[in-house]
């Protein structure tokens, strides 16, 4: 014979169940606030790391500018040394200042190259001066000077 299953019923007050439901909802909302706090912390960490990267870029940019400011004087020193070297060679070649044949063409090429370097050096000085003026100005959207770089094969 098959036994009949009987269900048991109790009468319990509903208010404690409602309180538990409300408490469960509050806990679930609390988890969302924890997630939001975690997200905010992550965003703040990203902002801090971004700021440190920006600071490093600014420092390296300043160091680069300082090194570029040294460059024209070094180029001037090199040009002066070349001029002295050429004058010594001219004196050694005969004193009249006009070398003959193949040496004359080589000297002319060196002089032309030297003049091109002087011209490029002057352009760098103008660019550095405009950079310096840009650093001193308070304009937030300043334009940087345009520096034209010639390929190697154009020069000689």
Q: What topology emerges from the helices and strands here?
A:
Elements: H1 15-93, H2 101-136, H3 152-155
Report the structural category. Answer: mainly alpha
* Major sheet description: none
Helix percentage range: over 70%
Assembly classification = single chain
Q: Which residues sit in consecutive blocks of at least 5 with pLDDT less than 50? A: none
Separate helix tally: 3
Beta-strand content: under 5%
Order of helices and strands: HHH
Q: Radius of gyration from the CA trace?
A: 40 Å
Distance between the termini: 114 Å
Shape, per Cα inertia axes = rod-shaped
Tally of DSSP β-strands: 0
Mean pLDDT: 79
Number of domains: 1
Task: Describe what you observe in this structure.
This protein is mainly α and 156 residues long. It has one domain (17-155). The protein is built from 3 helices and no strands. It has helices at 15-93, 101-136, 152-155. Helix 1 packs antiparallel against helix 2. The protein starts with 14 loop residues before the first helix and ends with a helix. The mean pLDDT is 79.
Write a brief caption for the model:
The chain is built from three helices and no strands. The chain has 156 residues and is an all-alpha fold. The longest helix has 79 residues.
Observed structural traits:
rod-shaped, mainly alpha, 156 residues
């Amino acid at each position: 014979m098959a036994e009949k299953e009987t269900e048991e019923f109790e009468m319990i007050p509903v208010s404690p169940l409602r309180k538990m439901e409300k408490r469960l909802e509050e806990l679930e909302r609390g988890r969302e606030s924890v997630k939001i706090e975690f997200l905010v912390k992550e965003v703040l960490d990203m902002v801090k790391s971004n700021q440190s990267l920006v600071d490093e870029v600014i420092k390296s940019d300043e160091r680069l500018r300082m090194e570029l400011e040294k460059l024209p004087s070094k180029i001037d020193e090199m040009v002066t040394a070349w001029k002295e070297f050429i004058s010594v060679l001219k004196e050694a070649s005969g004193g009249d200042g006009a070398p003959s044949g193949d040496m004359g063409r080589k000297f002319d090429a060196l002089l032309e190259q030297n003049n091109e370097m002087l011209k490029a050096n002057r352009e760098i000085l103008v660019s550095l001066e405009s950079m310096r003026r840009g650093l001193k100005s308070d304009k937030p959207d300043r334009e940087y000077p345009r520096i034209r770089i010639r390929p190697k094969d154009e020069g000689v």
